[in-house]
Amino acid sequence: MKMRTLFFIIAFAVMVSACASPTPTPAPAAKPKIEVSDLWTRAVAVSSGMGTPSAGGMNMSGPTSAAYMILKNNSGVADRLIKAQTDVAKTVEIHTTVKEGDVMKMKPVEGIDVPANGQAKLEPGGFHVMLIGVTRELKAGDKIKLTLVFEKSGELVLEAPVRAP
Ligand SMILES: [Cu+2]
Asked: Which CATH number belongs to the domain containing residue 152 in this structure?
């Protein structure tokens, strides 16, 4: 009787240790995952010679366009959009729109914060990805390749549909 009890205790102990040992709980992923929705790029005609008038009175070379979207962060770690790239524009900047007196002006920003479990909206009259010196006509229905670079989650390569404003 005593031996049997001991056997069960040992068997139980072995079982517990077998279960417990191979489970080093993995550290929660520190990388946020950004979801992009409502992504679109403003259509722009590229005529030879004259560029489109710059919307904010900024000194820009060539036609400009902008990309808008909603960035959703489903993690508990805040992230930040710090850079964007595309092959259809010479320069890509991240802009915000501010009201100075009665005039809306665009200004480059260092980045756009995407709060933990929150979202950032890029929309006309607010934050946007600015395409400066667009090299080819962007027609409604086209798609352009847009790469977003986030501080923590890294690169995200997207196809941005072109839409008429
Ligand atoms: Cu802009």
From this structure: 2.60.40.1890
